[in-house]
Amino acid sequence: MLAHKIELKVNNKEITYFKKACGISRLAWNWGLIKWQEYYKKGIKTSGMELKKEFNSIKKKEFPFVYEVTKYAAQQPFIQLNEAYKRFFKGISEKPKLKKKNKSVDSFYIGGDQIKVKDKKVKIPNLGWIKMRENIRFEGKISNATNIKNS
């Protein structure tokens, strides 16, 4: 597997989309973390996948705005939370913490099934084609992308 960073040329509409997606990702992480802690205190074992199913069952009613961005923005945090707790219980890392706006790294994940690249453009779900500062330097299939906000 190879990875590299490519800066995107974004306009105000695209910046708004990225902020929404990062916020939804942070919301899903924090919601999952709070639920995990509630269940843990009650002695109920849970997993990121179970929390994702629970979140998916309520998101249409309680968080309808999650449909404005890629589905992965609200799904991937549960997978990452599951991995974070695995590392914590093995003693490899610290206990997962809530993510605070402007205090943690804003990012969101997009699965390879939703990414398309053509020339110096990348297609983002529910947004469209975005210009990249440079071409992709590697050949092969794109398995995923993580969009990280630079300050």
Separation of the first and last Cα atoms? 27 Å
Radius of gyration: 17 Å
Please tell me what the overall shape is. globular
Q: Give the biggest sheet.
A: 4 strands, antiparallel
Mean pLDDT, to the nearest integer, reads 90
Strand order in the sheet with the most strands = 1-5-4-3
Q: Helix share of residues?
A: 40-55%
Summarize the helix and strand pattern as letters.
EHHHEEEEE
Strand percentage: 15-25%
What is the multimeric organization of the chains shown?
single chain
Class by SSE composition: alpha+beta
Write down how many β-strands occur, each being a DSSP E stretch of 2 or more residues: 6
Number of separate helices: 3
Low-confidence segments, given as residue ranges, are none
Description:
The chain is an alpha+beta fold and 151 residues long. β3 and β4 form a beta hairpin. The chain has three helices and six strands. The strands form two sheets. A four-stranded antiparallel sheet has the order 1-5-4-3, with no helix packed on it. 42% of the residues lie in helices and 16% in strands. The protein has helices at residues 12-41, 48-62, 72-89, and strands at 8-9, 107-111, 116-118, 121-124, 128-132, 144-148.
Produce the secondary structure layout:
Blueprint lengths: L7 E2 L2 H30 L6 H15 L9 H18 L17 E5 L4 E3 L2 E4 L3 E5 L11 E5 L3
Antiparallel strand pairs: 1-5, 2-6, 3-4, 4-5
Helix pairs in contact: 1-2, 1-3, 2-3
